[in-house]
Amino acid sequence: MDFLTQQFIASAKRIRDEIANVIGRLSSFGSDLKEIKEAAQSIDKTAKATQQAKAPQVEVRALLDIPGPIETKRDAYDDHQQRRDRWRLLVETFTLFAVVGYGYMTIRMWREMISARHQGQQAIKAAQDAAREAQNANLITKESLVAVQRAFVFPSPTNDIPGGPVTAKSQGIVVFIDWNNSGTTPAKWMTFHNIAIWFEDGMPSSFSFPEKWGPIQSHILSPTVIPPKGNIRTHNNIPLPVFTKWMNGGMHVYFYGWARYKDVFNGTPEHLTKFCYEMERVEPPRPISNQPGFSQVGAYLAQCPRNNCYDEQCRER
Fold first, then answer.
1. Ranges of each domain in the chain
2. What are the pLDDT digits (tens) for 111-141?
3. Do 160 and 295 contact (CB within 8 A), yes or no?
């Protein structure tokens, strides 16, 4: 038997012995497992019995031991966080007060604006009323001033009617009618026209007072001015046959006309005066002592029922 074979046999024996030893241990381990199983079952039964008996719970406290540097860093972080939270709370508190204060001021300003607007409207209304009253007062003052001081032109006939000699050669008589300005201011741009007319049976009711011109009268009316308290005299001719017939009661003689003028006040309309007179005899003709060949007839001019008006009265008719 060589050396390798002997070594192989020795190794195989050692392996056999170790396997047997392992098998023995496994058998012992199986017994131990059986005991462990039985102990576990016993513990399980005991635990169930304990749960059924409602045993008090056991409080377990654990103490965590943190190293010093980590604990210090964490404390510093917490302090920083707390300071930041306090500042945030302070800022938020101030912000809240600012918002509340701003809201209060806004509401107060809004109320003051409403009150100011109402007061402004009342002031505007009062100013408008005052302006209206002042305007009315100025208008009344102006109307009063115009009514008192404006020019007022009206006709003023004379009572005596001078005429030429009442003979066969006489051509007629002349009747004077004055245009008087009773105002304290001038009458400007005045134009006027007088007309003499006669009817045997009196003036017809349908007579419309037309514009008529005598044989020597100009159809162009030149504007003139009557000074305050002044007058302009107009001449109105009556043919002798008409006058003689009038003297005997067989003729009616009339004078009518108009005058247009402006006063000195701005904004006032043009003024208009119309008139109509009928010549009425009072006494027969009598000689004029200092004028040989001339006689004077006592008569007067009475207003006609129509065509006597001024301003608005004339425009309404």
1. 68-149, 153-204+221-316
2. 888 888 888 888 898 999 999 888 888 877 7
3. no
